């Protein structure tokens, strides 16, 4: 006999990845200046040494954009939004220090990609899009889960001909092999630096894809003489490190 009040199965999304999206509203003139600066820094280069790869400044000696005058507005925005991101995750601002390690431009011509990778040197990644119409034609940021937590049988989520229905919202929510973020002019995204990510091919022959990436690191605050030692899971403030001679 059926129960008069059947129990309804409910799924709970546990351990989510925190992806932040902030649509900034820069002055169009300032955006034009930044795009021109990035293209000037690239110069005559067509890409990175690997064929088909976008030009990335960090591999070509351009890795400190946040120190250049034209990028000070962007540096301030990244700083502000990074602190808000940490606050949203529950961090106490007084107990950590936040640093920009490096920042670099990425220029993707038609057909060019950025391969799958992550940033083991950093804790937080940020990407700002100088152009893009939100369609994804010029290449999407592709974020990969560390593992397919709901795959049940390894290979089913990303395999071909398996029993999963890829066109259903449930499959996309619980077993999506990746998430694509389309570039939009003025969009800033932040996510943990340990997250594997890539950039899909630029398929728009009329637009060069332009973005700026940031590596940020968390350490303990600068400790005074009477302060307790930093917790062991946080590196001390870099000002209190000692460089050893070779």
Structural write-up:
With about 250 residues, the protein is α+β, with helices and mostly antiparallel strands. It has a domain at about 15-40 and about 55-125 and about 140-150 and about 175-220: q2cbj1_9rhob like domain (Jelly Rolls), CATH 2.60.120. Helices cover about 15% and strands about 20% of the residues. It contains three helices and ten strands. The protein has helices at about 30-40, 70-90, 170-175; strands at about 20-25, 55, 95-110, 115, 125-130, 140-145, 180, 185-190, 195-200, 210-220. Strands 1-8-5-10-3-2 form a six-stranded antiparallel β-sheet, covered by helices on one side. The protein has a four-stranded antiparallel β-sheet with strand order 4-9-6-7, with no helix packed on it. The chain is globular, with a radius of gyration of 21 Å. The chain starts with 19 loop residues before the first strand and ends in a 27-residue tail after the last strand.
Annotation keywords:
246 residues; alpha+beta; Jelly Rolls; 6-stranded antiparallel beta sheet; 3 helices; 15% helix
CATH topology of the domain at 16-42 and 53-126 and 140-148 and 177-219: Jelly Rolls
How much of the residues is beta strand, in percent?
Answer: 15-25%
Secondary-structure element order, as H and E? EHEHEEEEHEEEE
User: Strand order across the biggest sheet?
Assistant: 1-8-5-10-3-2
Structural class per helix/strand content? alpha+beta
List the quaternary state of the chains: single chain
Helix share bin: 10-25%
Distance between the termini: 80 Å
The named CATH superfamily of the domain at 16-42 and 53-126 and 140-148 and 177-219: q2cbj1_9rhob like domain
Query: Tell me, what's the shape?
Result: globular
Q: Please tally the β strands and state the result.
A: 10
Counting DSSP H or I runs of 4 or more residues, the number of helices is 3
Indicate the radius of gyration in whole angstroms.
21 Å
């Amino acid at each position: 006999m059926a129960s008069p009040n059947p129990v309804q199965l409910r799924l709970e999304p546990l351990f989510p990845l925190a992806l932040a999206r902030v649509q900034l509203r820069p002055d169009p003139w300032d955006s034009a200046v930044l795009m021109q600066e990035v293209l000037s820094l690239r110069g005559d280069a067509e890409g990175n040494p690997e064929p088909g790869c976008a030009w990335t400044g960090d591999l070509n000696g351009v890795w400190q954009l946040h120190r250049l005058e034209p990028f000070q507005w962007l540096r301030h925005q990244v700083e502000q939004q990074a602190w808000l991101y940490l606050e949203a995750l529950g961090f106490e601002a007084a107990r950590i220090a936040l640093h920009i390690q490096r920042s670099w431009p990425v220029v993707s011509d038609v057909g060019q990609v950025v391969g799958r990778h992550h940033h083991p040197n950093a804790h937080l990644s940020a990407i700002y899009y100088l152009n893009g119409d939100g369609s994804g034609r010029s290449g999407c940021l592709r974020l990969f889960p560390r593992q397919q937590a709901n795959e049940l049988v390894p290979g089913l989520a990303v395999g071909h001909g398996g029993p999963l229905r890829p066109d259903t919202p449930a499959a996309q929510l619980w077993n999506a092999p990746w998430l694509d973020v389309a570039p939009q002019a003025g969009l800033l995204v932040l996510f943990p630096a340990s997250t594997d990510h890539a950039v899909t091919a630029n398929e728009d022959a009329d637009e060069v894809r332009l973005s700026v990436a940031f590596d940020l690191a968390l350490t303990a605050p600068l400790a005074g003489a009477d302060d307790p030692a930093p917790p062991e899971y946080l590196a001390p403030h870099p000002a209190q490190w000692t460089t050893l001679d070779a």
